[in-house]
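Late entry, zinc ion complex.
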Amino acid sequence: MSIRASLLLIGLVIISVCIIHSCDPSETTNTPNLITAEDILPHLEELSDDKYMGRMPFGPGDKMSVDYLVEQCKKMGLKPGNNGSYTQSVPMVEITSTSTESMSITSKQGTKEYQFGEDYVIHCQKTIDEVDIDDAQMVFCGYGIDAASSGWNDFAGIDMKDKIAVVLVNDPGFGGEDSTFFKGDVMTYYGRWTYKYEEADRQGAKGLLIIHETNSAGYPWFVVQSSWTGPQLGLEKESVQNGADIKGWIQLDMAKEIFASSGQDLSGLIKQARTPGFKPVELDLKMSTALSNVYKRDASDNVIAYIEGSKNPDEHVLYSAHWDHIGVGTPVAGDSIYNGALDNASGTATVLAIADNLMKQETKPERSILFTFVTAEEQGLLGSEYYALNPTVPINQIVANVNVDGCNPNGKMNDFQIVGYGHSEMDEIAAVELKKQGRYVLPDQEPGKGYFFRSDHFNFAKVGIPALFGEGGYDHEEHGVEYGKKKKAEYTAQNYHAPSDEYDADTWDMGGVVQDAQLYYNVGWNLANSDVWPQWNPESEFERKKNLID
Ligand SMILES: [Zn+2]
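Prediction complete; structure with ligand written out below:
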Protein backbone atom coordinates (compact mmCIF):
# COMPACT_ATOMS: atom_id res chain seq x y z
CA MET A 1 0.00 0.00 0.00
CA SER A 2 1.26 3.48 -0.84
CA ILE A 3 1.90 6.02 1.92
CA ARG A 4 -0.93 8.14 0.59
CA ALA A 5 -3.33 5.22 0.80
CA SER A 6 -2.18 4.38 4.33
CA LEU A 7 -2.69 7.97 5.47
CA LEU A 8 -6.10 7.99 3.85
CA LEU A 9 -6.99 4.79 5.65
CA ILE A 10 -5.80 6.09 9.03
CA GLY A 11 -7.77 9.27 8.36
CA LEU A 12 -10.87 7.28 7.60
CA VAL A 13 -10.59 5.21 10.73
CA ILE A 14 -10.26 8.41 12.81
CA ILE A 15 -13.21 10.04 11.08
CA SER A 16 -15.32 6.92 11.43
CA VAL A 17 -14.48 6.44 15.09
CA CYS A 18 -15.36 10.12 15.63
CA ILE A 19 -18.70 9.61 13.94
CA ILE A 20 -19.44 6.69 16.21
CA HIS A 21 -18.38 8.58 19.33
CA SER A 22 -20.06 11.84 18.43
CA CYS A 23 -23.52 10.47 19.11
CA ASP A 24 -25.06 9.41 22.35
CA PRO A 25 -22.37 7.41 24.14
CA SER A 26 -24.95 5.26 25.90
CA GLU A 27 -25.53 3.42 22.63
CA THR A 28 -22.11 1.84 22.72
CA THR A 29 -22.18 0.80 26.38
CA ASN A 30 -21.69 -2.85 27.06
CA THR A 31 -24.67 -4.98 26.21
CA PRO A 32 -25.02 -7.89 28.62
CA ASN A 33 -24.52 -11.32 27.14
CA LEU A 34 -28.06 -12.41 26.44
CA ILE A 35 -27.89 -15.10 23.80
CA THR A 36 -27.32 -18.68 24.89
CA ALA A 37 -26.75 -21.92 22.99
CA GLU A 38 -30.26 -22.97 24.03
CA ASP A 39 -31.68 -20.03 22.07
CA ILE A 40 -30.02 -21.25 18.88
CA LEU A 41 -29.84 -25.04 19.07
CA PRO A 42 -33.53 -26.00 18.73
CA HIS A 43 -33.82 -24.06 15.45
CA LEU A 44 -30.50 -25.38 14.18
CA GLU A 45 -31.39 -28.99 14.94
CA GLU A 46 -34.88 -28.60 13.50
CA LEU A 47 -33.89 -26.99 10.19
CA SER A 48 -30.99 -29.37 9.59
CA ASP A 49 -33.12 -32.44 10.29
CA ASP A 50 -33.37 -34.99 7.46
CA LYS A 51 -37.12 -34.35 7.17
CA TYR A 52 -36.36 -30.93 5.62
CA MET A 53 -34.58 -32.78 2.79
CA GLY A 54 -31.79 -30.23 2.48
CA ARG A 55 -34.17 -27.23 2.16
CA MET A 56 -34.06 -26.99 -1.62
CA PRO A 57 -36.26 -24.24 -3.11
CA PHE A 58 -39.25 -25.91 -4.86
CA GLY A 59 -38.16 -29.17 -3.22
CA PRO A 60 -40.02 -31.16 -0.56
CA GLY A 61 -38.46 -29.08 2.25
CA ASP A 62 -39.34 -25.67 0.80
CA LYS A 63 -42.81 -25.19 2.28
CA MET A 64 -41.80 -26.92 5.50
CA SER A 65 -38.90 -24.48 6.02
CA VAL A 66 -41.01 -21.43 5.24
CA ASP A 67 -43.83 -22.65 7.53
CA TYR A 68 -41.39 -23.24 10.35
CA LEU A 69 -39.91 -19.73 10.04
CA VAL A 70 -43.33 -18.05 9.84
CA GLU A 71 -44.48 -19.99 12.90
CA GLN A 72 -41.40 -18.87 14.86
CA CYS A 73 -41.86 -15.22 13.85
CA LYS A 74 -45.51 -15.36 14.98
CA LYS A 75 -44.61 -17.08 18.24
CA MET A 76 -42.07 -14.38 19.12
CA GLY A 77 -44.57 -11.64 18.32
CA LEU A 78 -42.67 -10.17 15.36
CA LYS A 79 -44.82 -8.18 12.94
CA PRO A 80 -45.35 -9.45 9.38
CA GLY A 81 -42.93 -7.60 7.10
CA ASN A 82 -44.70 -7.68 3.75
CA ASN A 83 -48.02 -5.84 3.76
CA GLY A 84 -49.53 -7.95 6.51
CA SER A 85 -47.87 -11.15 5.31
CA TYR A 86 -44.79 -12.93 6.65
CA THR A 87 -43.83 -14.14 3.20
CA GLN A 88 -42.74 -12.59 -0.07
CA SER A 89 -43.15 -14.80 -3.10
CA VAL A 90 -39.99 -14.96 -5.23
CA PRO A 91 -40.83 -15.96 -8.81
CA MET A 92 -37.98 -17.74 -10.56
CA VAL A 93 -37.38 -19.35 -13.89
CA GLU A 94 -35.31 -22.45 -14.54
CA ILE A 95 -33.74 -22.50 -17.97
CA THR A 96 -31.97 -25.44 -19.55
CA SER A 97 -30.03 -24.43 -22.66
CA THR A 98 -28.80 -27.05 -25.07
CA SER A 99 -26.12 -26.12 -27.54
CA THR A 100 -27.54 -27.53 -30.76
CA GLU A 101 -24.41 -27.19 -32.80
CA SER A 102 -20.74 -26.40 -32.32
CA MET A 103 -19.39 -22.86 -32.42
CA SER A 104 -17.85 -21.89 -35.71
CA ILE A 105 -15.41 -19.03 -35.97
CA THR A 106 -14.61 -17.57 -39.36
CA SER A 107 -11.52 -15.51 -40.12
CA LYS A 108 -9.65 -14.70 -43.34
CA GLN A 109 -7.94 -18.05 -42.83
CA GLY A 110 -11.23 -19.96 -43.04
CA THR A 111 -13.74 -21.46 -40.63
CA LYS A 112 -12.94 -23.58 -37.59
CA GLU A 113 -15.39 -25.53 -35.41
CA TYR A 114 -15.11 -25.58 -31.62
CA GLN A 115 -16.77 -28.11 -29.29
CA PHE A 116 -19.24 -27.38 -26.47
CA GLY A 117 -17.81 -28.35 -23.09
CA GLU A 118 -14.31 -28.92 -24.34
CA ASP A 119 -13.66 -25.47 -25.83
CA TYR A 120 -16.57 -23.34 -24.71
CA VAL A 121 -19.80 -23.27 -22.69
CA ILE A 122 -22.72 -20.99 -23.51
CA HIS A 123 -26.22 -20.59 -22.19
CA CYS A 124 -29.18 -18.28 -22.59
CA GLN A 125 -30.77 -16.48 -19.63
CA LYS A 126 -33.83 -15.36 -21.61
CA THR A 127 -37.19 -17.10 -21.78
CA ILE A 128 -37.01 -17.68 -25.52
CA ASP A 129 -37.13 -21.03 -27.29
CA GLU A 130 -34.23 -20.72 -29.65
CA VAL A 131 -31.15 -18.66 -30.32
CA ASP A 132 -29.51 -18.56 -33.71
CA ILE A 133 -26.34 -16.58 -34.17
CA ASP A 134 -25.18 -16.18 -37.72
CA ASP A 135 -21.79 -14.64 -38.51
CA ALA A 136 -21.85 -12.14 -35.63
CA GLN A 137 -18.96 -9.68 -35.43
CA MET A 138 -16.60 -10.39 -32.48
CA VAL A 139 -15.10 -7.50 -30.49
CA PHE A 140 -12.40 -7.65 -27.83
CA CYS A 141 -13.74 -5.45 -25.00
CA GLY A 142 -10.90 -5.67 -22.46
CA TYR A 143 -12.28 -6.60 -19.07
CA GLY A 144 -15.88 -5.77 -20.04
CA ILE A 145 -16.00 -2.86 -17.58
CA ASP A 146 -17.89 0.41 -17.90
CA ALA A 147 -17.28 2.24 -14.62
CA ALA A 148 -18.35 5.84 -15.10
CA SER A 149 -17.16 6.90 -11.64
CA SER A 150 -13.57 5.84 -12.32
CA GLY A 151 -13.61 7.01 -15.93
CA TRP A 152 -12.95 3.51 -17.26
CA ASN A 153 -14.88 2.24 -20.27
CA ASP A 154 -13.96 -0.93 -22.14
CA PHE A 155 -16.88 -0.29 -24.52
CA ALA A 156 -15.88 3.29 -25.41
CA GLY A 157 -17.15 4.44 -28.78
CA ILE A 158 -18.71 1.19 -29.92
CA ASP A 159 -22.31 0.10 -30.46
CA MET A 160 -22.46 -3.55 -29.37
CA LYS A 161 -25.79 -4.29 -31.08
CA ASP A 162 -25.53 -7.63 -32.95
CA LYS A 163 -21.91 -8.03 -31.77
CA ILE A 164 -20.25 -10.57 -29.50
CA ALA A 165 -18.07 -9.12 -26.72
CA VAL A 166 -15.00 -11.19 -25.86
CA VAL A 167 -13.66 -10.17 -22.45
CA LEU A 168 -11.01 -11.08 -19.89
CA VAL A 169 -11.78 -12.55 -16.47
CA ASN A 170 -11.07 -10.51 -13.27
CA ASP A 171 -10.14 -6.80 -13.47
CA PRO A 172 -7.17 -4.76 -14.78
CA GLY A 173 -5.64 -4.41 -11.30
CA PHE A 174 -5.19 -8.16 -10.75
CA GLY A 175 -1.59 -9.32 -10.83
CA GLY A 176 -0.26 -5.74 -11.05
CA GLU A 177 2.05 -3.80 -8.75
CA ASP A 178 -0.29 -0.95 -7.91
CA SER A 179 -2.70 -1.73 -5.06
CA THR A 180 -4.66 1.46 -5.77
CA PHE A 181 -5.38 0.51 -9.42
CA PHE A 182 -8.63 -1.51 -9.30
CA LYS A 183 -7.41 -2.46 -5.80
CA GLY A 184 -4.55 -4.59 -7.16
CA ASP A 185 -4.98 -8.23 -6.21
CA VAL A 186 -8.09 -7.53 -4.15
CA MET A 187 -11.01 -8.50 -6.36
CA THR A 188 -13.39 -5.67 -7.16
CA TYR A 189 -16.97 -6.27 -8.24
CA TYR A 190 -15.84 -5.46 -11.79
CA GLY A 191 -13.82 -8.65 -11.69
CA ARG A 192 -16.79 -10.92 -11.05
CA TRP A 193 -18.43 -12.75 -13.95
CA THR A 194 -21.85 -11.63 -12.66
CA TYR A 195 -20.85 -8.00 -13.31
CA LYS A 196 -19.65 -8.84 -16.83
CA TYR A 197 -22.95 -10.59 -17.59
CA GLU A 198 -24.93 -7.56 -16.38
CA GLU A 199 -22.71 -5.12 -18.30
CA ALA A 200 -23.12 -7.07 -21.56
CA ASP A 201 -26.91 -6.72 -21.10
CA ARG A 202 -26.60 -2.99 -20.49
CA GLN A 203 -24.38 -2.55 -23.55
CA GLY A 204 -26.99 -4.27 -25.71
CA ALA A 205 -24.51 -6.88 -26.95
CA LYS A 206 -25.71 -9.94 -28.85
CA GLY A 207 -23.48 -12.14 -26.76
CA LEU A 208 -20.68 -12.28 -24.21
CA LEU A 209 -17.76 -14.70 -24.03
CA ILE A 210 -15.38 -14.55 -21.07
CA ILE A 211 -11.89 -15.91 -21.68
CA HIS A 212 -11.20 -18.38 -18.88
CA GLU A 213 -7.80 -18.36 -17.25
CA THR A 214 -7.36 -20.47 -14.12
CA ASN A 215 -5.18 -18.08 -12.12
CA SER A 216 -7.32 -14.98 -12.72
CA ALA A 217 -10.62 -16.82 -12.33
CA GLY A 218 -9.50 -18.61 -9.18
CA TYR A 219 -10.88 -21.96 -10.37
CA PRO A 220 -10.14 -24.44 -13.16
CA TRP A 221 -12.08 -24.98 -16.41
CA PHE A 222 -14.04 -27.99 -15.12
CA VAL A 223 -15.76 -25.71 -12.57
CA VAL A 224 -16.92 -23.44 -15.40
CA GLN A 225 -18.00 -26.47 -17.40
CA SER A 226 -20.00 -28.14 -14.62
CA SER A 227 -21.52 -24.88 -13.34
CA TRP A 228 -22.85 -23.80 -16.72
CA THR A 229 -24.15 -27.12 -17.99
CA GLY A 230 -27.69 -28.19 -17.07
CA PRO A 231 -30.59 -26.21 -15.60
CA GLN A 232 -29.89 -22.65 -14.41
CA LEU A 233 -32.21 -20.88 -11.99
CA GLY A 234 -32.68 -17.13 -12.18
CA LEU A 235 -35.03 -14.21 -11.69
CA GLU A 236 -37.06 -13.19 -14.69
CA LYS A 237 -35.82 -9.65 -15.15
CA GLU A 238 -36.49 -7.14 -17.88
CA SER A 239 -32.82 -6.20 -18.07
CA VAL A 240 -31.94 -9.84 -18.80
CA GLN A 241 -34.86 -10.42 -21.14
CA ASN A 242 -33.79 -7.39 -23.20
CA GLY A 243 -30.11 -8.30 -22.90
CA ALA A 244 -27.61 -10.61 -24.56
CA ASP A 245 -28.86 -13.80 -26.26
CA ILE A 246 -25.88 -15.87 -25.22
CA LYS A 247 -23.43 -15.69 -22.36
CA GLY A 248 -20.60 -18.02 -21.62
CA TRP A 249 -16.94 -18.82 -21.45
CA ILE A 250 -14.19 -19.94 -23.81
CA GLN A 251 -10.97 -21.75 -22.95
CA LEU A 252 -7.75 -19.74 -22.99
CA ASP A 253 -6.29 -21.93 -25.78
CA MET A 254 -9.31 -21.34 -27.97
CA ALA A 255 -9.01 -17.59 -27.36
CA LYS A 256 -5.32 -17.59 -28.28
CA GLU A 257 -6.04 -19.54 -31.45
CA ILE A 258 -8.92 -17.42 -32.74
CA PHE A 259 -7.14 -14.16 -31.90
CA ALA A 260 -4.07 -15.38 -33.80
CA SER A 261 -6.23 -16.30 -36.80
CA SER A 262 -7.45 -12.69 -36.89
CA GLY A 263 -3.87 -11.42 -36.81
CA GLN A 264 -3.97 -10.40 -33.13
CA ASP A 265 -1.81 -11.48 -30.25
CA LEU A 266 -3.80 -12.06 -27.05
CA SER A 267 -0.96 -11.20 -24.67
CA GLY A 268 -0.45 -7.87 -26.46
CA LEU A 269 -4.17 -7.14 -26.20
CA ILE A 270 -4.14 -8.00 -22.48
CA LYS A 271 -1.40 -5.39 -21.98
CA GLN A 272 -3.49 -2.81 -23.82
CA ALA A 273 -6.56 -3.74 -21.79
CA ARG A 274 -4.66 -2.95 -18.58
CA THR A 275 -3.72 0.53 -19.79
CA PRO A 276 -5.95 3.56 -19.17
CA GLY A 277 -7.53 4.80 -22.38
CA PHE A 278 -8.02 1.29 -23.80
CA LYS A 279 -10.46 1.18 -26.72
CA PRO A 280 -12.38 -1.93 -27.83
CA VAL A 281 -10.78 -3.81 -30.74
CA GLU A 282 -12.99 -5.11 -33.55
CA LEU A 283 -11.62 -8.52 -34.44
CA ASP A 284 -11.54 -9.90 -37.93
CA LEU A 285 -13.73 -12.76 -36.68
CA LYS A 286 -17.34 -13.86 -37.21
CA MET A 287 -19.08 -16.30 -34.90
CA SER A 288 -21.99 -18.67 -35.57
CA THR A 289 -23.75 -21.01 -33.17
CA ALA A 290 -27.22 -22.03 -32.00
CA LEU A 291 -28.95 -23.30 -28.93
CA SER A 292 -32.42 -24.27 -27.78
CA ASN A 293 -34.03 -23.54 -24.44
CA VAL A 294 -36.45 -25.39 -22.21
CA TYR A 295 -37.76 -23.39 -19.29
CA LYS A 296 -40.22 -23.60 -16.44
CA ARG A 297 -41.40 -21.15 -13.80
CA ASP A 298 -41.83 -21.70 -10.08
CA ALA A 299 -41.74 -19.67 -6.89
CA SER A 300 -40.28 -19.93 -3.41
CA ASP A 301 -40.62 -17.54 -0.46
CA ASN A 302 -38.59 -15.03 1.48
CA VAL A 303 -39.78 -14.78 5.09
CA ILE A 304 -39.91 -11.19 6.34
CA ALA A 305 -40.75 -9.89 9.82
CA TYR A 306 -39.91 -6.85 11.91
CA ILE A 307 -39.87 -5.10 15.27
CA GLU A 308 -41.28 -1.61 15.07
CA GLY A 309 -38.97 1.13 16.29
CA SER A 310 -40.17 3.31 19.19
CA LYS A 311 -38.68 6.59 17.97
CA ASN A 312 -37.68 6.28 14.30
CA PRO A 313 -39.87 3.46 13.00
CA ASP A 314 -39.24 4.41 9.36
CA GLU A 315 -35.50 3.69 9.67
CA HIS A 316 -34.54 0.02 9.57
CA VAL A 317 -31.64 -2.18 10.56
CA LEU A 318 -31.74 -5.26 8.35
CA TYR A 319 -30.69 -8.75 9.43
CA SER A 320 -30.52 -11.44 6.77
CA ALA A 321 -29.85 -15.17 6.58
CA HIS A 322 -30.62 -17.57 3.77
CA TRP A 323 -32.79 -20.50 4.83
CA ASP A 324 -32.23 -22.61 1.71
CA HIS A 325 -29.59 -25.21 0.95
CA ILE A 326 -28.93 -27.59 -1.94
CA GLY A 327 -31.40 -30.41 -1.28
CA VAL A 328 -30.85 -34.07 -2.09
CA GLY A 329 -27.96 -35.11 -4.31
CA THR A 330 -25.25 -37.63 -5.03
CA PRO A 331 -24.91 -39.92 -1.98
CA VAL A 332 -21.67 -39.75 -0.03
CA ALA A 333 -21.08 -42.66 2.38
CA GLY A 334 -24.72 -43.72 1.94
CA ASP A 335 -26.16 -40.26 2.76
CA SER A 336 -27.88 -38.23 0.05
CA ILE A 337 -29.43 -35.44 2.15
CA TYR A 338 -27.37 -32.27 2.09
CA ASN A 339 -28.56 -30.92 5.45
CA GLY A 340 -26.70 -27.61 5.40
CA ALA A 341 -26.49 -27.42 9.19
CA LEU A 342 -23.73 -24.85 9.09
CA ASP A 343 -24.76 -23.51 5.68
CA ASN A 344 -27.14 -22.03 6.66
CA ALA A 345 -29.39 -23.55 9.32
CA SER A 346 -26.86 -22.08 11.76
CA GLY A 347 -27.20 -18.53 10.42
CA THR A 348 -30.99 -18.80 10.23
CA ALA A 349 -31.09 -20.09 13.82
CA THR A 350 -28.77 -17.27 14.90
CA VAL A 351 -31.01 -14.57 13.42
CA LEU A 352 -34.08 -16.23 15.02
CA ALA A 353 -32.28 -16.18 18.39
CA ILE A 354 -31.35 -12.51 17.91
CA ALA A 355 -34.97 -11.64 17.08
CA ASP A 356 -36.25 -13.56 20.06
CA ASN A 357 -33.86 -11.83 22.47
CA LEU A 358 -34.65 -8.41 21.00
CA MET A 359 -38.37 -9.07 21.48
CA LYS A 360 -37.78 -9.99 25.13
CA GLN A 361 -36.19 -6.60 25.92
CA GLU A 362 -38.29 -4.24 27.95
CA THR A 363 -37.06 -1.27 25.95
CA LYS A 364 -37.93 -1.36 22.31
CA PRO A 365 -35.26 -0.28 19.81
CA GLU A 366 -35.61 3.30 18.54
CA ARG A 367 -35.30 2.27 14.93
CA SER A 368 -37.17 -0.66 13.42
CA ILE A 369 -35.36 -3.97 13.01
CA LEU A 370 -36.14 -6.02 9.95
CA PHE A 371 -35.47 -9.75 9.60
CA THR A 372 -35.26 -11.36 6.18
CA PHE A 373 -34.89 -15.12 5.80
CA VAL A 374 -34.20 -15.33 2.10
CA THR A 375 -34.53 -18.20 -0.35
CA ALA A 376 -32.35 -19.50 -3.22
CA GLU A 377 -29.00 -18.14 -2.04
CA GLU A 378 -27.28 -21.29 -3.19
CA GLN A 379 -28.77 -20.86 -6.69
CA GLY A 380 -27.22 -17.40 -7.15
CA LEU A 381 -28.35 -15.14 -4.27
CA LEU A 382 -31.81 -14.96 -5.85
CA GLY A 383 -34.07 -14.36 -2.82
CA SER A 384 -31.99 -11.41 -1.64
CA GLU A 385 -31.72 -10.05 -5.18
CA TYR A 386 -35.50 -10.17 -5.46
CA TYR A 387 -35.83 -8.41 -2.10
CA ALA A 388 -33.33 -5.71 -3.12
CA LEU A 389 -35.30 -5.11 -6.33
CA ASN A 390 -38.69 -5.36 -4.57
CA PRO A 391 -38.03 -4.07 -1.05
CA THR A 392 -40.82 -3.97 1.53
CA VAL A 393 -39.46 -0.67 2.91
CA PRO A 394 -37.64 2.02 0.88
CA ILE A 395 -34.00 1.06 0.35
CA ASN A 396 -32.80 4.51 1.45
CA GLN A 397 -34.43 3.92 4.84
CA ILE A 398 -32.34 0.82 5.49
CA VAL A 399 -29.46 1.85 7.75
CA ALA A 400 -27.27 -1.22 7.37
CA ASN A 401 -27.32 -4.96 6.87
CA VAL A 402 -25.94 -7.70 9.08
CA ASN A 403 -25.83 -10.92 7.07
CA VAL A 404 -25.27 -14.28 8.73
CA ASP A 405 -24.21 -17.09 6.41
CA GLY A 406 -22.57 -19.88 8.34
CA CYS A 407 -21.40 -19.84 11.94
CA ASN A 408 -18.24 -20.90 13.68
CA PRO A 409 -18.72 -24.36 15.23
CA ASN A 410 -15.16 -24.56 16.59
CA GLY A 411 -15.52 -22.66 19.86
CA LYS A 412 -14.72 -19.15 21.09
CA MET A 413 -12.21 -17.10 19.13
CA ASN A 414 -10.04 -14.09 19.96
CA ASP A 415 -10.51 -12.71 16.46
CA PHE A 416 -13.31 -12.18 13.95
CA GLN A 417 -12.75 -12.12 10.22
CA ILE A 418 -14.56 -9.38 8.31
CA VAL A 419 -15.12 -10.43 4.71
CA GLY A 420 -14.76 -7.47 2.34
CA TYR A 421 -12.86 -5.52 5.00
CA GLY A 422 -12.30 -1.93 3.89
CA HIS A 423 -15.60 -1.39 2.09
CA SER A 424 -17.53 0.54 4.72
CA GLU A 425 -17.73 1.96 8.23
CA MET A 426 -19.40 -1.28 9.32
CA ASP A 427 -15.80 -2.44 9.92
CA GLU A 428 -15.27 0.17 12.64
CA ILE A 429 -18.71 -0.42 14.15
CA ALA A 430 -17.93 -4.15 14.41
CA ALA A 431 -14.46 -3.36 15.79
CA VAL A 432 -15.95 -1.33 18.67
CA GLU A 433 -18.22 -4.24 19.61
CA LEU A 434 -15.47 -6.82 19.17
CA LYS A 435 -13.22 -4.86 21.50
CA LYS A 436 -15.89 -5.05 24.18
CA GLN A 437 -15.85 -8.83 23.73
CA GLY A 438 -12.07 -8.78 24.14
CA ARG A 439 -11.60 -9.70 20.47
CA TYR A 440 -9.85 -8.17 17.50
CA VAL A 441 -10.65 -7.65 13.82
CA LEU A 442 -9.06 -9.93 11.28
CA PRO A 443 -9.28 -8.38 7.79
CA ASP A 444 -10.43 -10.53 4.87
CA GLN A 445 -7.84 -13.30 4.54
CA GLU A 446 -8.54 -14.03 0.88
CA PRO A 447 -9.58 -10.69 -0.66
CA GLY A 448 -8.61 -11.93 -4.12
CA LYS A 449 -11.36 -14.55 -4.10
CA GLY A 450 -14.20 -12.04 -3.93
CA TYR A 451 -16.11 -13.70 -1.07
CA PHE A 452 -17.73 -10.33 -0.38
CA PHE A 453 -19.69 -10.86 -3.61
CA ARG A 454 -20.82 -14.37 -2.75
CA SER A 455 -23.54 -14.07 -0.12
CA ASP A 456 -26.79 -12.16 0.28
CA HIS A 457 -25.38 -8.92 1.73
CA PHE A 458 -23.85 -8.34 -1.72
CA ASN A 459 -27.30 -7.69 -3.23
CA PHE A 460 -27.95 -5.14 -0.48
CA ALA A 461 -24.53 -3.56 -1.13
CA LYS A 462 -25.39 -3.22 -4.82
CA VAL A 463 -28.36 -1.01 -3.94
CA GLY A 464 -26.22 0.97 -1.50
CA ILE A 465 -26.78 -0.63 1.92
CA PRO A 466 -23.51 -1.08 3.85
CA ALA A 467 -23.17 -4.57 5.27
CA LEU A 468 -21.32 -6.54 7.87
CA PHE A 469 -20.42 -10.04 6.81
CA GLY A 470 -18.20 -12.02 9.11
CA GLU A 471 -16.52 -15.38 9.12
CA GLY A 472 -15.97 -16.46 12.71
CA GLY A 473 -12.27 -16.41 13.41
CA TYR A 474 -9.05 -18.41 13.45
CA ASP A 475 -7.47 -17.51 16.78
CA HIS A 476 -9.00 -20.08 19.14
CA GLU A 477 -9.28 -18.88 22.73
CA GLU A 478 -7.71 -22.04 24.18
CA HIS A 479 -5.86 -23.76 21.34
CA GLY A 480 -4.56 -20.85 19.24
CA VAL A 481 -4.38 -19.94 15.57
CA GLU A 482 -3.03 -23.20 14.11
CA TYR A 483 -5.89 -25.15 15.65
CA GLY A 484 -8.47 -22.64 14.39
CA LYS A 485 -7.05 -22.77 10.88
CA LYS A 486 -6.95 -26.56 10.89
CA LYS A 487 -10.58 -26.83 11.99
CA LYS A 488 -11.69 -24.39 9.33
CA ALA A 489 -9.79 -26.19 6.58
CA GLU A 490 -11.27 -29.50 7.75
CA TYR A 491 -14.81 -28.19 7.36
CA THR A 492 -14.14 -26.85 3.86
CA ALA A 493 -12.53 -30.09 2.74
CA GLN A 494 -14.99 -32.51 4.34
CA ASN A 495 -18.34 -30.83 4.93
CA TYR A 496 -18.77 -27.80 2.68
CA HIS A 497 -21.76 -28.51 0.42
CA ALA A 498 -21.60 -32.18 1.42
CA PRO A 499 -24.17 -34.46 3.13
CA SER A 500 -21.92 -34.41 6.21
CA ASP A 501 -22.71 -30.74 6.92
CA GLU A 502 -24.80 -31.92 9.88
CA TYR A 503 -25.17 -30.82 13.47
CA ASP A 504 -23.19 -33.06 15.81
CA ALA A 505 -23.37 -32.36 19.54
CA ASP A 506 -20.05 -34.16 20.04
CA THR A 507 -17.99 -32.09 17.62
CA TRP A 508 -19.75 -28.71 17.58
CA ASP A 509 -18.57 -26.25 20.23
CA MET A 510 -21.42 -23.73 20.43
CA GLY A 511 -19.25 -21.19 22.28
CA GLY A 512 -18.20 -19.53 19.03
CA VAL A 513 -21.71 -19.53 17.55
CA VAL A 514 -23.06 -17.81 20.68
CA GLN A 515 -20.15 -15.33 20.79
CA ASP A 516 -20.78 -14.24 17.17
CA ALA A 517 -24.56 -14.17 17.65
CA GLN A 518 -24.04 -11.77 20.55
CA LEU A 519 -21.74 -9.64 18.39
CA TYR A 520 -24.39 -9.40 15.64
CA TYR A 521 -27.00 -8.63 18.29
CA ASN A 522 -24.87 -5.81 19.75
CA VAL A 523 -24.09 -4.30 16.34
CA GLY A 524 -27.80 -4.30 15.38
CA TRP A 525 -29.04 -3.13 18.78
CA ASN A 526 -26.58 -0.22 18.96
CA LEU A 527 -27.30 0.86 15.39
CA ALA A 528 -31.02 0.68 16.10
CA ASN A 529 -30.57 3.01 19.09
CA SER A 530 -28.44 5.59 17.34
CA ASP A 531 -28.80 8.06 14.50
CA VAL A 532 -25.67 6.80 12.76
CA TRP A 533 -25.85 6.06 9.04
CA PRO A 534 -22.73 4.00 8.28
CA GLN A 535 -21.14 5.07 5.01
CA TRP A 536 -19.18 3.34 2.28
CA ASN A 537 -15.48 4.17 2.13
CA PRO A 538 -14.39 6.21 -0.92
CA GLU A 539 -12.32 3.26 -2.21
CA SER A 540 -15.35 1.01 -2.36
CA GLU A 541 -17.14 0.47 -5.67
CA PHE A 542 -20.46 0.76 -3.76
CA GLU A 543 -22.29 3.93 -2.80
CA ARG A 544 -25.27 4.94 -0.65
CA LYS A 545 -28.72 5.47 -2.16
CA LYS A 546 -27.39 4.73 -5.55
CA ASN A 547 -27.31 1.66 -7.61
CA LEU A 548 -23.76 0.64 -8.52
CA ILE A 549 -24.67 1.17 -12.11
CA ASP A 550 -26.35 4.62 -12.04
ZN1 LIG B 1 -24.58 -20.12 2.67
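The longest helix spans residues 3-22. Will revisit in the morning.
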